Amino acid sequence: MIALSGCTSTPQSGPGYRAVESSAAVTVSAANKTVGIDYALVDINKAVLAYASETRALASFGSFGAASNVIPNISLGVGDVVQVSIFESQPGGLFIPADAGSRPGNFVTLPSQTIGRNGYISVPYAGLVRAAGRQTIDLQRDIEKTLANRAIEPQVLINKVSSRSARVAVLGDVKAPAKVELSEGGDRILDVISQAGGLNAPGSETYVTLQRKGRSATVLYERLVNTPSENVFVAPDDTIIVDRERRTYLAFGASGLNGRFDFEETDLTLGEALGKAGGLLDSRANPAQVLLYRVVPKQFLQRLSVNVDKFPSDMVPVVFRANLRDPSAFFAVQKFPMQDKDVIYVSNSDSVEIIKFLNLLNSVTSTVSGVAGDAASTKTSVQRLN
User: 20 to 30 A from 94, CA-CA: which of 160, 192, 365, 371?
Assistant: First the structure.
């Protein structure tokens, strides 16, 4: 056995770990050969299920105005095209000549004009009037006051022909990315997404990001649909980014299949995830040690009355353990929700390690006997040739 353990001619797919370590110019490793990440071990039980849905720090659009639920004021802005109509109470005034006769309204409509970079528009006999950043009703009153001493009881009506300042950019996985013009009645996030053609990806794998004045928040599309308070009003110059992100989890150890798996459903439980991964191998798995790795907010552990003084960060690595030797645990894993990028590890049974050792011992002894047999056969063949 000692001689065989030192043999370097056995088939390998690459260098062994000893060769890697010995050839390294510099080795950076922990003294005790561990990663050094502190984590909490939590058994999945009835108490944990009560807070299982809260193990993810959910972003929210609440800071963007969900609480007030007030439609944003849409002011005039640079680039908007407006049309000014001026009414007088009777002919003979500044804009309606006396020989024009009486006609409905006695008004004149000025040519459409674009609010320039300086934010002003030009009105005859009123000069330059600041328009950008103002409501149309305020601008109308301002022009009326300016013309009051010249026109006969002037009344001003401003019509916004087109708006370039009150738009929202919708980008990403939508069918028709575009800048959407906002209406005075107010538009919510789902409204502008629908105007951009709707989603171009499954809703369960789609995230919506709202950017506004240096702030940003991202919410799962399904949460946006199912939680009305998240469907906030958008404001001019907002940017909405729709991204598809495949929701996956990893499965390792004594499960039927190892690898990365897609959720494929909006809600996936631990029990369903184990089923997609082929279940537990009867010959290897330890049903009492089914582990799920996840990083959770510290508040989750505090709700379970866990001392979190050892964890300085707001997010804590946690290993959730399911004991499937307990018949009732199968109900628990069917209620425990999976989250994106979870890792499932099914531990080997202790007896498996013993079997591995016995198999290794058997292979070594059979190899030694095989070498002796091959040597005898070779010697016999040589003698026959002579």
Answer: 160
